[in-house]
Every structure is written in structure tokens, then in C-alpha cells.
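Re-run requested by the PI after the first attempt was lost when the workstation crashed. Everything re-entered from the original request form. Ligand of interest: zinc ion.
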Amino acid sequence: MAKSDILSRSDLMELEIARYRKDNQPTKNEVDAIVNHHRAVLNVPRISWTRYWVCDSYNNLGIYCVYDDDTDRLHDSCLYCGHPEERK
Ligand SMILES: [Zn+2]
């Protein structure tokens, strides 16, 4: 993965905050950039980035929770805050 494919921390926050405020769908390139950021930071090969929940962890420099697709297919535990995708 080229270094330029990974968003800087400030770019990630800016992108997610802009999308959160506008409440619209990010482009595929934006999603890829966000996913690549989290994969690089977490050193996890396949992650899911969902827009269901705002993450509670300060370690997550984006806004939304992130899940490991290989070991946590049901999205029971966010890689940053540990919360499940389904919160009832
Ligand atoms: Zn989270």
C-alpha cells in the first residue's frame, strides 16, 4: 500500500466530520481512504467501517466505529471502543 493511500489523521477527521454533518454518503474513494487509514493504524487486514455508531474512543481519530471483518464477523466489538454494532 502506497503511503499516499493512507489519510493523515487531520484529513481523516476532516473527512468524517464533513460527512457526518452533511449526513450524506461518502464516495467510494473516500470510504477506501478511511478504511485504509484504520487498517494502517490498527494493523488489521480487513475492517468494516460502518456509519451506524459514533465511536466513544479518543483513540479513534475518525468518528465511527470500526470492526475486524476476519475475527469479528458479527461486529460485536469495535476495535477502538469495544462496543457492538447493535446497541439495544
Ligand atoms: Zn467504537
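Saved to the shared folder this time. The helical segments are 9-22, 28-42.
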